[in-house]
Design goal:
Distance between the termini: 24 Å
Strand order of the largest sheet: 13-12-11-7-10-9-8-14-15
Shape: globular
Strand content: 15-25%
Radius of gyration: 23 Å
Number of strands: 15
Number of helices: 19
Number of domains: 2
Structural class: alpha/beta
Length: 483
């Protein structure tokens, strides 16, 4: 495997050399988005392939480096796998073997240094704590970026990626697959449920309080432990750290893993992004703070609580009144409180259904409560939808089209369209997924300060009433690593 090169002169030279074949693909599309004709777009597709590197091949990443499938870079984008990078030779063995003639790397920094002028784009599918750093490096190198959900581990990382995407005018996409459900959004905006008064989400909790692993373990010969840690604080190898989804240092928890799929629709439908300064413009809803409070949870410094409730109190924005959005994670008190709410709701509105309906027993889901009815949504992009009372909504037909057409492109195909002709993506870092990630990552900060109401300013990217919580937004990188 190639080893990392070091030195500012080499990196600057590499950056200067990148004015290559990518100019047609990236710089032209970014300078004049939406101006390429269909014939030009098809001409590029027929004559040149997008040259794509994949960073992280042990989990979701291996699904991008296959010849066919819904996550296949080759099939979904028409692109070519041009470089592969992973710190774990054992997990990467299958995709590495599938592409024997493609350069292989352990260190994404070396890969971008050496291969940058030959690449158009990078797919990042590493553990969460190494999402932002390679994405940021690729954007600075002029490469389009597709990054797996939940985009970043910290709020500052999400903000940095959004700013870079805007500055570089490159095609970006967070990999929350189905994006958001357009019909649900337009049903809400058409007022079919009346005024949305509250939204209740539920899902799995974390591992609960744990101590840091102890004892001495030899690093396996197939693993580069230093590179696996990446920007995280150094610690001796222990196989328990490799269960990265469990630990705060390496994971964005349920909000990033499932919330990225289940909550994108409500973020868009409730016009939450209007509280952010999109593309450095003043927020459409004005400068306001979001309040977030966690309750019913144990304090877990290293892990995520096994049971918790988080409330976001959202101020009025655009034509929408203030709203409380609540997330019930795990069992015990959180599940009891959710069930109590359902019983109270159906007691007051028996025509809307029953607490015994199996839909309310699914392990994840969303309940939208309006003045004229309720809605259940579930699945990637909230593709499963039921509205109650069922008789009222049985044959209501499609709502008026209130989202601008054409719709932004989703997942890999939408990202590739953005690369080829500058069209917008559904989960672009600067236009959607950056602010969205900042919003859902507030839950992970709130659970470290239970029963404290934190006020987050989306414009300044600060928690303005609690210095210790504010520090969680901007957590330091280990020496030798940068965002």
């Amino acid at each position: 495997m190639a080893m990392a090169k070091h030195g500012k002169d080499q990196r600057d030279s590499s950056a200067r050399s990148r004015m290559t074949r990518r100019n047609f693909l990236g710089a032209t599309a970014a300078a004049a988005p939406l101006l390429l004709t269909r014939n030009k777009a098809l001409g590029y597709e027929a004559n040149e392939q997008i040259q794509v590197a994949v960073v992280g091949l042990g989990g979701r990443g291996k699904d991008y480096a296959v010849e066919e499938g819904w996550s296949s870079i080759r099939q979904q984008t028409g692109g070519r796998i041009a470089a592969l990078c992973d710190v774990n030779k054992k997990k990467a063995a299958e995709p590495f073997g599938r592409y024997p003639d493609v350069p292989k790397y352990e260190d994404y920094r070396a890969m971008i240094d050496e291969m940058g002028s030959k690449l158009d784009a990078v797919v990042v599918a590493t553990p969460d704590h190494v999402h932002a750093a390679p994405s940021a490096l690729a954007l600075r190198a002029g490469l389009h970026v597709f990054c797996e959900k939940g985009l970043s581990r910290t709020i500052q990382e999400a903000r940095t990626l959004a700013e870079l995407a805007f500055e570089k005018k490159l095609s970006t996409q967070m990999g929350n697959q189905a994006g958001y459900n357009v019909r649900v959004i337009e049903n809400v905006w058409a007022g079919r449920l009346g005024e949305i008064q509250t939204i209740h989400m539920w899902g799995g909790g974390g591992a609960g309080a744990r101590q840091a692993p102890s004892g001495t373990h030899e690093v396996p010969d197939y693993l580069n432990w230093n590179l696996w840690l990446g920007p995280a604080a150094f610690r001796p190898y222990h196989p328990e750290w490799m269960n990265h989804s469990m630990w705060r240092d390496f994971s964005c928890g349920h909000p990033g893993w499932w919330g990225a799929h289940l909550w994108a629709t409500l973020f868009k439908a409730m016009k939450l992004e209007t509280l952010w300064s999109i593309d450095r413009k003043p927020p459409a809803a004005g400068s306001k703070t979001i309040k977030v409070t966690a309750e019913c949870c144990e304090v877990c410094d290293l892990t995520f609580p096994s049971s918790s409730i988080v409330h976001w109190d959202i101020p009025a924005r655009m034509d929408m009144p203030p709203i409380r959005i609540s997330w019930y994670a795990g069992g015990r008190e959180a599940e009891k409180r959710r069930r109590d709410y359902l019983r109270e709701l159906f007691s007051e509105h028996p025509q809307w259904g029953s607490v015994d309906d199996k839909r309310w027993g699914n392990w994840v889901g969303n309940l939208w409560v309006g003045s004229e009815g309720i809605m259940y949504t579930y699945g990637h992009g909230d593709t499963t939808v039921d509205m109650f009372p069922e008789g009222k909504f049985k044959n209501i037909g499609a709502p008026p089209q209130s989202l601008p057409r054409p719709l932004p492109g989703g997942f890999l195909r939408g990202w590739a369209d953005g690369i080829k002709n500058g069209t917008p993506t559904m989960s672009g870092f600067n236009t959607f997924s950056g602010p969205f990630a900042e919003w859902f990552l507030l839950a992970n900060i709130a659970t470290q300060f239970p029963d404290k109401t934190l006020e987050f300013d989306p414009v300044s990217c600060r928690i303005v009433n609690h210095d210790q919580a504010d520090q969680k937004i901007r957590q330091p990188y280990r020496e030798g690593w940068k965002l």
